[in-house]
Specification:
Layout: H1 5-22, H2 29-44, E1 48-54, H3 55-58, E2 66-73, E3 82-84, H4 88-91, E4 99-102, E5 121-127, E6 131-137, H5 146-216, H6 223-248, E7 255-258, H7 259-267, E8 276-279, E9 285-288, H8 292-306, E10 312-319, E11 325-331, H9 356-365, E12 370-373, E13 382-387, E14 392-393
Parallel strand pairs: 8-10
Antiparallel strand pairs: 1-2, 1-6, 2-3, 4-5, 5-6, 7-9, 9-14, 10-11, 11-13, 12-13
Helix pairs in contact: 1-2, 1-5, 2-5, 5-6, 7-8, 8-9
Length: 399
């Protein structure tokens, strides 16, 4: 049966217009991709479509030498979700032009990253220089013709611009969120500093009155007055040092950090020499604020302060039921009572500065890591850090 060229042209033009109107109606990347790609499959009778973006464009904290499949339809066919950027999916698009290969071509098999692929053909369209739109059609033996590829070229270029717009919008939203958190942090820092230092100044003024009365009476100045003033000065100094640490939280971008080398480095600090530390986390890396080293230091220092001489600490991990990693710092000291397991993370709680564990929690929360005490009183303290699945890598196969 012969086809009518005029009818085919009108049909294709109608499809292109419909696709064009589906683009850019949402600044959410998933919604934008779904509106265009699901319509593309429905109107062109394709079998599968996916959108791949390079991680340096996504700024998702993952390996910048890789790309991520950010959208796939139908999802049931999706399999591999990350690929190196030197994979044929990207390497074959060196000239910035759409290409196609059928199952009869040698280039076809290396492109397979989906389930249920049996014969058919792939069409690859560049999304700028940062991604690829991948189309698969099962019921055909030949690659897409140059004419077929050209039909969608301009509308896919428009789609590529919309994807970049979604990513820019996401970056703006993240920047606004960072600014919001920074403002909250500065407000909290101001409150902590003003309130706590004023409390100490009040105590200084009290001792000033006592000293004035003592001098006026011609009595010798009691040594305990001077001792208390020195203690107050030390407290104020620690509080000011705390503000210095706190204001650094979130200043630098989070980064991937290997746990065991940091544990080893920190455990060799002179003030932690009384602690025997073992790390059994393999090559595990976590995505955390650069101040993660201070987290490790404070946890170790806390064990020494509340433990006995010769106390030991072991660093291990276990998976949880949600695909996350629980990184544990467990010592064999006295442990924490049930009523204080939550309170120890409150600002000002404890007999020292009251800021150590509070500061730890603030640092970890910047990358979605939570912390809680899960040890047993009388057997030792265990600080368990729940690290989201996307914030850990190089996970050992065995503990």
């Amino acid at each position: 049966m012969k086809t009518n060229p005029v009818s085919d042209f009108s049909k294709n033009l109608s499809i292109i217009n419909e696709l064009a109107f589906s683009i850019g109606n949402s600044l959410d990347l998933q919604e934008n991709c779904n509106a265009f790609c699901s319509l593309l499959l429905a109107r062109k009778n394709y079998s599968f479509v996916s959108v791949w973006l390079k991680n340096d464009m996504l700024k998702n904290g993952r390996n910048v030498g890789e790309a991520t499949c950010v959208y796939a339809y139908p999802l049931v066919m999706a399999d591999v979700v990350t690929l190196p950027i030197d994979h044929p999916l990207f390497a074959l698009l060196t000239h910035g032009k759409a290409i196609s290969y059928s199952s009869l071509d040698a280039e076809f098999t290396p492109l397979i990253a989906e389930k249920r692929i049996s014969g058919g053909a792939y069409a690859l369209y560049p999304l700028g220089d940062y991604g690829v739109l991948k189309i698969y059609v099962q019921n055909r033996d030949e690659a897409f013709s140059a004419e077929e590829l050209a039909q969608l070229r301009n509308v896919i270029r428009k789609f590529a611009v919309s994807v970049q717009g979604c990513l820019s919008h996401h970056s703006l939203v993240m920047a606004e969120e960072t600014l919001r958190k920074t403002n909250l942090k500065l407000a909290l820092l101001s409150t902590v500093t003003r309130h706590d230092i004023l409390n100490q100044i009040t105590a200084v003024l009290l001792y000033k009155e006592l000293l004035a009365d003592t001098v006026a009476a011609g009595e010798p100045i009691a040594a305990e007055y001077a001792s208390e003033l020195f203690k107050i000065a030390e407290i104020i100094e620690r509080q000011i040092r705390f503000t210095g640490d706190y204001q650094e939280i979130g200043v630098e971008a989070p980064q991937w950090q290997c746990v065991c080398p940091i544990v080893k480095k920190v455990s060799q600090f002179t003030e932690l020499s009384a602690l025997n530390v073992t790390c059994n986390a393999g090559d595990l890396e976590i995505y955390a604020d650069p101040l993660f080293e201070k987290v490790v230091f404070n946890l170790m220092e806390n064990s020494i302060r509340h433990g006995s001489h010769g106390i030991s600490m072991e660093v291990t991990w276990v998976p949880d039921n949600d695909g996350n990693i629980i990184l544990m710092f467990a010592d064999d000291g006295g442990g924490v009572s049930d009523e204080n397991k939550e309170r120890i993370f409150e600002k000002g709680f404890g007999s020292n500065t009251g800021y150590g564990l509070y500061l730890i929690r603030e640092i970890l929360l910047l990358t979605g890591i939570t912390i809680k005490e899960t040890g047993t009183l009388g057997k030792g303290a265990t600080f368990s850090l729940t690290i989201p699945h996307g914030a850990c890598r190089n996970i050992p196969h065995t503990v």
